[in-house]
Design brief:
single chain, 266 residues, globular
Length: 266
């Protein structure tokens, strides 16, 4: 019977402690510490990071596994910037997060390879800049670093490009967000990436754009997707990135895996 651990991305904000309590009460196994709440508003983001130790103190009290830490994204966090000062600035921002969060023992850090849009002509240069940033960041933390699969024109918008990024830098893994694949099916992406997948962001969508719906409300073939994870030997966290209560996540997880494992036995 295939049954990974179940988790939820929990955004760091004013209600972080109560959301952690909700996840603990629901019987989840793990969580991602999401630092992206104010990615659109830099002043608010800076203020939020000023209280980062409050969140880390709450994490220390929790029995849940700290699976991953989601670094923020947007123009300020552009690890693929062609402008060297902008790229170096983004690396320094991430290094500051590493220094503060590493003592909590996260399993990995999750980052976006780029902002958007990216023109086809600049893509090769941007990919090289991203790999340069990843090499530098890899030396700054004991935790693994995962590049997330992204939609539209972002870097890492196909499994092949993600594979190239991960294989191009020692010690880099993939966070597979299954609702970000707009050019291939999620289960096909799993087959390509295989053991490079260290963690997941789980949600459903309509194959048109990212939606972050609860699994079963979109078009993903969940038996096929879970089967691909099992075949790939994935033993990480089945980490939901949806805005629903933790108890609904646990119920959904039980339904998905009961259906999958029941089909396997029939």
């Amino acid at each position: 019977m295939y049954r990974p651990r179940v988790g939820k991305s929990i955004s760091f904000g004013e209600d972080f402690s109560s959301r952690m309590s909700e996840a603990e009460s629901a019987g989840l196994d793990a969580f991602d510490f999401d630092l992206c709440a104010h990615w659109r508003e830099r002043e608010k983001e800076i203020a939020l990071y000023g209280r980062l130790e409050d969140g880390l103190q709450r994490i220390e009290q929790s029995p849940l596994l700290l699976n991953g830490v989601h670094i923020s994204f947007g123009p300020v966090w552009e690890f693929s910037a062609v402008d060297e000062r902008s790229r170096a600035s983004a690396v320094r921002l991430a290094e500051e997060i590493f220094a503060r969060v590493d003592p909590a023992g996260p399993g990995c850090y999750i980052l976006h390879g780029s902002w958007e849009p990216i023109a086809d002509g600049e893509r090769p240069r941007r990919l090289e800049q991203l790999k340069r940033s990843l090499r530098e960041l890899r030396e700054r933390t004991a935790a693994r670093i995962c590049v997330e699969s992204l939609p539209r024109t972002c870097l890492g918008n196909t499994s092949r490009e993600l594979k190239d990024i991960a294989d191009g830098v020692d010690g880099i893994d993939v966070c597979l967000d299954c609702n970000h694949f707009l050019r291939e099916k999620p289960e096909d992406a799993v087959a390509v990436l295989g053991s490079r997948i260290r963690t997941t962001h789980i949600s459903d969508y309509d194959f048109v754009d990212e939606r972050h719906w609860l699994p079963g409300t979109g078009k993903i073939d969940w038996n096929a997707f879970i089967g691909a994870l099992e075949k790939a030997g994935y033993d990480g966290v089945f980490n939901y990135e949806v805005k629903v209560p933790a108890r609904e996540i646990k119920e959904n997880f039980e339904q998905l895996f009961a259906a999958y494992n029941g089909r396997q036995r029939s």
